[in-house]
Amino acid sequence: MKQTKYSLLLASAAAALLASSIVSADTLPSIVPAPADNPTTPEKVELGKQLFFDPRLSVDGTVSCNSCHNIMSSGTDNRPTSVGIDGQRGGRSAPTVWNAAFLSAQFWDGRAATLEEQAKGPPLNPIEMGMPSEAAVVERLNSIPGYVEQFKLAFGGKDAVSYDNMAKAIASFERTLITANSNYDRFLAGEKTAMSEQAQRGKKVFEQSGCNACHSGGNFAGPELPIGEGFYQKFPAIASDYDHKYKLSEDKGRFEVTKDRADMNKWRVPSLRNIALTAPYFHNGSVETLDEAVRVMAKTQLGLDINDQDVDDVVAFLQSLNGEFPDISMPRLPDTINSSQVGGMK
Amino acid sequence: MKQTKYSLLLASAAAALLASSIVSADTLPSIVPAPADNPTTPEKVELGKQLFFDPRLSVDGTVSCNSCHNIMSSGTDNRPTSVGIDGQRGGRSAPTVWNAAFLSAQFWDGRAATLEEQAKGPPLNPIEMGMPSEAAVVERLNSIPGYVEQFKLAFGGKDAVSYDNMAKAIASFERTLITANSNYDRFLAGEKTAMSEQAQRGKKVFEQSGCNACHSGGNFAGPELPIGEGFYQKFPAIASDYDHKYKLSEDKGRFEVTKDRADMNKWRVPSLRNIALTAPYFHNGSVETLDEAVRVMAKTQLGLDINDQDVDDVVAFLQSLNGEFPDISMPRLPDTINSSQVGGMK
After folding, report:
1. Domains B42-174 and B183-319 share a fold
2. Measured between CA atoms, how close is A330 to chain B, in angstroms?
3. Which of A71, A330, A332 sits opposite B329 (nearest CB)?
C-alpha cells in the first residue's frame, strides 16, 4: 500500500513534469533559471536595477544601459542603431532586454554566452559607454558609498565591488524582465477569445509557411540549447532585391566573431516576443515597419512572395505575442555628497 | 455669546494661519499650489510622468526631460553642462527639478514664469531635444494612441493633444517632486538630534555671515514672490580671483533676456535644498565640489575669506537640507504597434 502510494506520487510528479515541459515548449516560463555561480537574490536584483539605470557607468555620465534598452517601453530604443557617448552611432540595432534571459547566447552575433558576459561589453565599448577600463569602472563604483554597501550586502567578501559582480547584479535584474501572459499565451491556456480570428489565421500562416522552423519554442527564438550554444541562421538566406534595398548582407554577422566562412551572415535567431513593439527591424534596423519585415523574412528565408492578406494576418498574430510588462518601482541611485563623478567632464 | 464664539474661532484661525505661515517661512510645504488654469489631477500627473521620461519628445529619440533632470538621483545630470541630441553641449548647468515648483521664476535667468512655460523650452531647443516645431511635437504625440487617449482623459475636448497641454501635464507631474523631511526640517520641528552639532554650528555661520540674506525662506531661494517675479542677485557681486579661475562673469545671465544693463550677470537665486547632491556648481558648472562653492560664495557675495572649519561646518549644514525623495513607480511609455516614431532616424 505504501509502495503503491509512492508510485502514484512518482507517476503524478512525472506527469506534472511532462505537462510542464510540454507547456514550456510553447509558452514563456515565468522564472528563468540562474547559473550556479550567480543565484538570483533580492539584493542582487535591486543593485542590478540601480546599475542598469545609472548613467555613471558611462564615462561622461550620459548613457545608461536603459538609454538603449528602455525598460519603460520595448526594451529597445526603437532606433535603427543606438547613440552612445558624444553622439556616436553604433553599427547594430539594440536588441530588446525583455526576455533576453531565455536566450542561450547574447548579442546579435552570439559573442557572449550569458547575460553576465553580455553586461560587461557596453561599459567598455568606446562608442557606447566609453569607460577606459574595468578598473576605471570599479574605481567609480567604489567612489559611491551606497554602491559599496550594496555590493557587500549582495556578494560579501572584501572584494565585493568588482567588474564581475557588477555584471552579475545586472544579469540578476535582467532575469526578472519577463513578459508573460500575452494574448497568445492565454489562448494556448484555453482562453479561446484571447486571440482574434485574424491572429489565429496568422498563426496558421506562420506555421504552414515554416516561420516556426526557426522561430520555435516558447520564446519563438529556436530550440532550447545549452547556455553558450546559440541558435544561428543565415540572413538573408535566399538572394532577393531586399538584400540591396536594405543592405542586409553588408554586416557579416557571426563571421566577425569566428572568422569561419560557414558563419558568414549568420545571426542569432531573435525572439518574436513583443516584436510588434521593437521597430525598426533586423540587425541594422533598416526596415521601418513590421509588415515590411514579414515580407522580407518570407522572401529571404523561405523564398515566398507573401500576399497582403497573409502579411496582415501574420502581423496580427505577432501582435498577440506582446506580453504583460511587470510593474517596477523606480530605482533611487545612490548619491555622492559634495561632488560628482562626472563633474569635471566637458 | 454667539459673537464671542465667532471671534474666538476667527482668532484661533488667525493664529493657525500665522503659525502656518511662520513654519512655511522656514520649512518646505508638502503641497505646491497649482495655477488656476492648470489644477493638479492624478490623470495629468500620470501623463506628465510618462512625457517626462519619454525620449520621443526629442527629434531622434535619445533625450528625455529625465536625461538632464534625473529624478532617480539629484534631479540634475551632475555634469557641468548637459548633453543634448548629437552630443551637443549646452551652455549652462541643468538646475534640479526637485522643488522647482516652489520657485517664482524658472531657468537660471528666470526667462520662464511658470513650470508650464519652462517645459515648452527644451523640446524645441536645437541643442537639447531638437524638435523642429510645436506642430511636429503634437504630430508625434498624436501618432501614439496611448497618449491621445490620456490627453483626452486629462484635458477633455477635441484638441486635447496640444503643446500647451503637454507642458501642463509635465508641470503637474513636477509639482509632485518635493523633498520634505530633511534633517533640517525635522530639527526645526523639534527633533533636536536630527542635525549634528557640526551642522548646527554651520547653520549659525550661514546665518551670521549673511548667506540667508539671499538664500532665505523654506526653499532657501529667497522671499516668496508672485509667480513670474523672480528673485535675482548679481553673481559674482564682488571682484576676486575666483571670477577668472571659474569664468564666472562670462555668461551675462539675465541681461541676455532683458538687455537691461542693470541685469548684467544677474541670476535667479537657486534653492539650497539638496545642494550637496547636485555638484558641480553654479550656472556654468565650473566648481566641482561643495566646499569650494561655499568659499566662492563667501568671497564673491559677502567679501569673506572663510576659514576651513567654517567651510566644513557650512557644508555639514547644507547636507542637512537633503530631503526625503518620494517613492515613484516607473512609468510605462505608451507603445506604437508595428512602427517607431524614430525608426527612420540616422
Report:
1. yes
2. 5
3. A330
Q: Does B71 touch chain A (CB under 8 A)?
A: yes
The CATH architecture one would assign to domain A183-319 is: Orthogonal Bundle (1.10)
Cell 547584479 belongs to A169
- For residue B18, what pLDDT is reported? 36
How many angstroms separate the CA atoms of A69 and A165, rounded?
A: 20
- Torsion angles phi and psi, residue A65, rounded to 5: -50, -40
* Sole residue written with cell 550586502: A153
A55 close contact with B: CB closer than 8 A? yes
Give burial (CB, 10 Å; 0-12/13-18/19+) of B212. middle
Q: From the CB of residue A261, how many other CB atoms can be counted at a distance below 10 Å?
A: 8
* Helix, strand, or coil (residue A196): coil
* Site of grid cell 550556479: A36
Average pLDDT score over chain B: 92
- Neighbour tally for B84: CB within 10 Å: 23
DSSP summary character for residue B70: -
Q: How far is CA B53 from the centre of its chain?
A: 17
Strands (E), B116-186: none
Cell of A177: 524582465
Place of cell 560628482: A340
In 3D space, the residue among A68, A211, A61 whose CA is nearest the CA of residue A137 turns out to be: A61
Chain B residues in contact with A83 (beta carbon < 8 A): 60, 62
Mean pLDDT per block of 10 residues along chain A (346 residues) reads 39 37 60 93 98 98 98 97 96 97 97 98 98 98 98 95 98 97 96 97 98 96 94 97 97 98 98 98 98 98 98 98 96 95 88
Distances (CA, A) of B14 to B10, B27, B158, B163: 6, 20, 45, 42
Helix (H, G, I), strand (E, B) or coil at A281: strand
Q: How does pLDDT run across B48-104, given as a tens digit for each residue?
A: 999 999 999 999 999 999 999 999 999 999 999 999 999 999 999 999 999 999 999
Query: Mind spelling out the 3-state secondary structure of A266-278?
Result: EEECCCCCCHHHC
What is Dmax (Cα atoms) for chain B?
Answer: 79
Q: How far is CA B216 from CA A106, B53, B281, B326, in A?
A: 55, 32, 19, 24
Enter the pTM of the model.
0.92
What pLDDT score was predicted for residue A158? 86
Give the C-alpha separation, B204 to B133, whole Å: 50
Three-class DSSP labels, B99-118: CHHHCCCECCCCCECCHHHH
CB A60 within 8 A of CB A345: yes
Amino acid at position A83, single letter: V
Q: Which of B280, B325, B337 sits opposite A332 (nearest CB)?
A: B325
**Domain residue limits, chain A:** 42-174, 183-319
The candidate with the shortest Cα–Cα distance to A105, out of A93, A117, A96, A94, is A117
Per-residue pLDDT tens for B250-281?
A: 999 999 999 999 999 999 999 999 999 999 99
Please tell me whether residue A112 adopts helix, strand or coil conformation: strand
Question: Which CATH fold topology does A42-174 show?
Answer: Cytochrome Bc1 Complex; Chain D, domain 2 (1.10.760)
